[in-house]
Amino acid sequence: MIRKSSPICLLLVCFFAQFAYAQAAAPKVKTTQGEAAGKWIHDGKEKAFFGLPYAAPPTGDLRWKAPEPPAKWSGVRDATKFGNRCEQWHVWDDYIFTDAGPSEDCLYLNVYEPAAAKRGGKLPVMVWIHGGGFLAGAGSEPRYTNPALVAKGVIVVTLNYRLNVFGFLASEDLAKEQGGHAGNYGLMDIVAALRWVKANIGAFGGDANNVTIFGESAGSFAVSALSVAPSARGLFQKEIGESGAFFGSVIPMTSASERAKRDQAFVTSLGATSLEELRAMPADKILDAAKKQRGIGFSAVVDGSFLPESLPDAYAAGREAHVPSIIGWNRDERAGVLSKGMTAEKWKAFAKEHYGDKADEFLAAFPGNIDEQAVRSADDFTTNGFIAMGAWRWVEGQSKTGQAPVYRYRFDRPAPAEPLHPTGKYAFHSTELEYVFGTLDVRHGATWQPADRKLSDEVITYWTNFARTGDPNGGGLPQWPRYDKEKMVIHLDDPITVTLDTTRAEFEFMANEPPLRR
Predict the structure, then answer these.
(1) Which of 140, 217, 220, 227 is catalytic?
(2) pTM reported for the whole predicted model
(3) If you write DSSP's letter for every residue of 82-95 in order, what string do you get?
């Protein structure tokens, strides 16, 4: 005779399960630097190790130098708290952190793994590079923590890297000190983290030869740069770029020689007369001066060493990493500004004013025969000009010379209304992040629908399938064709659809960069 469990029995089972989980010994791991104790998360289904140093603190004489190996430690390191985020100021309201605060001592990473993972396993590894315009961000942001990707059988690593003036200063004095090469320290940090993963991830049960790097915004720019960096070769086997690449002007990559004079003038403005004085200067004084720079004042440079050449040149010659790629962007990366109050009549006037005798060509690519169409074209135009153009050039370059599968997506699902984005009608820049990590509930004020959670699970499955095999397909998902073979784009929405690339005319028009007539 089968008896149904009483509510009291069920409560007791849950209580004792929770008690056993709470009393379980902390998970431990032996790295090449020493032993660390992490913690159980997701009710004991996953293990997390926070604040593991992958490089020496880049302070004092190590400020503006390539990262040095981390020191070893004795005893058991507490790996239950995030390491400090790298020096930055408050830039965006949706950047929320759970670490102790900004510091130059910030080169730490975090490892998330399934509870059953153990040394000698061969789980795929996904290394996340956060966005933030090389100005802000950290692995401690709640939208990246407790990633649901891990439940699909992968190990996720998140990391911090030097930002802004501390990560990318490329002055004349630094170039003289470093054999003619300066800058790119933030990107060097990421390579150092990948080397740490190569050396240590086996202790966590990961496969050091099956590593996927993925990032969004500046993190995607970093992924594109690492694809041509000789020092990163062989440290990853797959790449995912979400919204951005060094193929445009939104985050410029200039030559080191162009930047050197400008950056030297910045150093002079600080009152430093030598690198010794500059390295002894308080970080907050340097950061306050950098804050006054317009836009993204410090970013990657073609230095002839870490980055021997520009990305367009490298890809044209086929000198990029030949690894499977997922590259895409969001439908409304920048929307609602030019399109506000737009009508068909205004759109045609815009075309005539800014493109003159090319107006008809412009309108063929960005049609506006009715008001609704004009609004959509205006949003497409600003989205492309902001971030999508560079990503499009990247996906085209990889398709032509990459010698590996390329998958292209567009994230189309509008984010629900919340205080920072009250309209609830745009798939804005960074919309996809909580879907990718399965952390929808950390976005304050948003009311999610079942379709959002379903789409998040589908995206996570695509991403982890890709990390496992280099092919996102499987698990009953809609088929995602290769862009390099079929020029098909998957639209991540409810429902997921696949279409031929219908936006090529837009990008081909903009690629010619006809001057805007003001």
Answers:
(1) 217
(2) 0.95
(3) PPPEES-----TT-
**3-state DSSP helix/strand/coil percent for the chain, to nearest 5?**
40, 15, 45
3-state secondary structure of 45: coil
Q: Kindly report the length of the chain.
A: 518
Both ends of the chain: CA-CA distance in Å?
Answer: 84
Specify the residue for token string 């001066």.
Answer: 289
Q: Is 42 a catalytic residue?
A: no
The rounded distance, in Å, linking the Cα atoms of 309 and 300 is 12
Q: 307-337 b/e with 16+ CB inside 10 Å = b?
A: beebbeebbeeebbbebbbbbbbbbbbbbbe
Catalytic annotation present for 305: no
Is the separation of the CB atoms in 432 and 411 below 8 Å?
yes
Determine the 3-state secondary structure of 206 from DSSP.
strand
Give the HSE-up count for residue 212: Cα atoms under 13 Å, Cβ half-sphere. 28
Annotated catalytic residue: which of 227, 299, 429, 506? 429
Q: Can you give the pLDDT of all 518 residues of the chain as single tens digits?
A: 334 445 454 444 444 444 445 557 999 999 999 999 999 999 999 999 999 999 999 999 999 999 999 999 999 999 999 999 999 999 999 999 999 999 999 999 999 999 999 998 999 999 999 999 999 999 999 999 999 999 999 999 999 999 999 999 999 999 999 999 999 999 999 999 999 999 999 999 999 999 999 999 999 999 999 999 999 999 999 999 999 999 988 998 999 999 999 999 999 999 999 999 999 999 999 999 999 987 778 999 999 999 999 999 999 999 999 999 999 999 999 999 999 999 999 999 999 999 999 999 999 999 999 999 999 999 999 999 999 999 999 999 999 999 999 999 999 999 999 999 999 999 999 999 999 999 999 999 999 999 999 999 999 999 999 999 999 999 999 999 999 999 999 999 999 999 999 999 999 999 986 555 54
DSSP code per residue over 453-500: HHHHHHHHHHHHHHHHHS----TTPPP---HHHH-EEEEESSS-EEEE
Residue 35: active-site member? no
Paired with 49 in beta bridges are 111
Q: Which two tokens stand for residue 114?
A: 């399934």
Neighbours of 422 (CB within 10 A): 9
List strand residue ranges (DSSP E) for 91-154, in order: 102-103, 108-114, 123-129
**Which of 216, 333, 396, 434 is the catalytic position?**
333
